[in-house]
């Protein structure tokens, strides 16, 4: 594992230089500042919210350290390494076990201060993370990288990471105008009671590699009673409406499904789409057209959807109607 170096300056002050384990009480504020600088142009709304929480925790580092000593939970979340140069924190990498008892480990937050890039710091941090995973008995390292980050992708390629697929967030600043309504024989509403059918459909469109890394969870498709009541009330007062529509085969199995969260008050419309791989070319375009047609009676707020990069037909259709890829995240893995 890469070592920490200690250099002496002319005033005989000892200055750290190199990589060392992340120290919760000592490094939290520095890592928050580093992530803000390193990913200034990449953070979405969720990322900015997480960064705000990290900054707040940084100002409470003493309390966080005490809590970590008693429970260990914070240390698990922030486990990793930092790089020190010129006496300050300029690099970071987070290393976490994917799930308890799993041989898969996740590498995240690989960040280097913009003024210190090009010095091999990212590679040193990555090598340290991989050595640590090996020492902990891990069998795989997994990470995500933005498609447009060619420098990082080049580094991971040289370090023998392989691509497993990814997801793309598609965004339109306003609902596009569309005339007519596509004919989709058999498209009908489904209820919360059909969550098992939706879960089965979502499972079918995930590749073996995706399931290996992050399996589809049954609980994610349940609609709790309180959520259902909230949706009913929002529709009653004319605020929002959630459309859940599906196409079934002769056995009742879902072949494709769409969920549309349509807003009447300020906000973003949200679209989710699930289609069995063998039916994508047959259904994806018309399902998207149906959703856009349904939104014509709502305010022209922005609209957001997230797709697997394997949904070529859906992406092409969305781009045809003015959607742009806001974020594309690729998932990479490497055998340890």
Overview of the molecule:
The protein has helices spanning 24-38, 45-59, 61-71, 73-78, 121-135, 150-158, 195-204, 208-213, 225-236, 280-294, 312-320; strands spanning 4-8, 14-21, 80-85, 88-97, 104-112, 140-146, 162-172, 188-189, 240-248, 254-263, 269-275, 303-308, 324-335. By secondary structure, the protein is of the alpha+beta class. Strands 1-2-3-4-5-6-13-7-12-11-10-9-8 form a 13-stranded mixed sheet, with helices on both faces. The longest helix has 15 residues, at 24-38. It is elongated, with a radius of gyration of 23 Å.
Q: SSE order, as H and E?
A: EEHHHHEEEHEHEEHHHEEEHEHE
Rg from alpha-carbon coordinates: 23 Å
Distance between the termini: 15 Å
The largest sheet, given as strand count, sense and whether it forms a barrel, is: 13 strands, mixed
Backbone shape: elongated
Task: Look at the helices and sheets and give the structural class.
Answer: alpha+beta
Oligomerization = single chain
The number of helices is: 11
Number of strands: 13
Strand order of the largest sheet: 1-2-3-4-5-6-13-7-12-11-10-9-8
Hey, roughly how much beta strand do the residues contain? 25-35%
Topology:
Layout: E1 4-8, E2 14-21, H1 24-38, H2 45-59, H3 61-71, H4 73-78, E3 80-85, E4 88-97, E5 104-112, H5 121-135, E6 140-146, H6 150-158, E7 162-172, E8 188-189, H7 195-204, H8 208-213, H9 225-236, E9 240-248, E10 254-263, E11 269-275, H10 280-294, E12 303-308, H11 312-320, E13 324-335
Parallel strand pairs: 5-6, 11-12
Antiparallel strand pairs: 1-2, 2-3, 3-4, 4-5, 6-13, 7-12, 7-13, 8-9, 9-10, 10-11
Helix pairs in contact: 1-2, 1-3, 10-11
């Amino acid at each position: 594992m890469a070592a920490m170096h200690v250099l002496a300056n002319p005033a005989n002050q000892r200055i750290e230089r190199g990589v060392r384990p992340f120290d919760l009480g000592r490094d939290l504020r520095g890592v928050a500042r580093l992530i803000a600088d390193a990913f200034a142009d990449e953070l979405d709304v969720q990322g900015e919210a997480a960064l705000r929480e990290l900054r707040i925790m940084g100002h409470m580092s003493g309390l966080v350290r005490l809590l970590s000593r008693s429970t260990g939970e914070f240390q698990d979340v922030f486990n990793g390494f930092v790089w020190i140069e010129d006496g300050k924190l300029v690099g970071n990498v987070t290393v976490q076990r994917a799930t308890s008892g799993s041989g898969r480990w996740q590498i995240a937050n690989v960040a280097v201060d913009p003024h210190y890039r090009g010095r091999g710091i990212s590679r040193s941090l990555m090598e340290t993370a991989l050595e640590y995973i090996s020492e902990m008995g891990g069998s795989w390292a997994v990470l995500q990288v933005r498609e447009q980050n060619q420098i990082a992708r080049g580094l991971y390629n040289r370090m023998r990471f392989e691509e497993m697929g990814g997801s793309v967030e598609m965004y339109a600043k306003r609902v596009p105008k569309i005339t007519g309504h596509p004919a989709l024989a058999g498209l009908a509403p489904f209820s919360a009671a059909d969550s098992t059918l939706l879960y089965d459909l979502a499972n079918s469109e995930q590749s073996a590699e995706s399931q290996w890394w992050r399996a589809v969870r049954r609980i994610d498709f349940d609609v709790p009673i309180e959520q259902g009541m909230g949706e009913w009330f929002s529709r009653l007062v004319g605020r929002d409406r959630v459309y859940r529509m599906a196409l079934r085969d002769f056995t009742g199995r879902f072949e494709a499904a769409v969920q549309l969260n349509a807003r009447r008050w300020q906000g973003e419309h949200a679209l989710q789409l699930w289609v069995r791989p063998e039916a994508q070319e047959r259904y994806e375009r018309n399902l998207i057209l149906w959703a856009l047609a349904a939104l014509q009676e709502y305010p022209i707020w922005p609209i957001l959807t997230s797709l697997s990069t394997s949904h070529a037909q859906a992406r092409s259709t969305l781009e045809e109607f003015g959607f742009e890829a806001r974020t594309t995240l690729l998932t990479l893995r490497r055998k340890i």
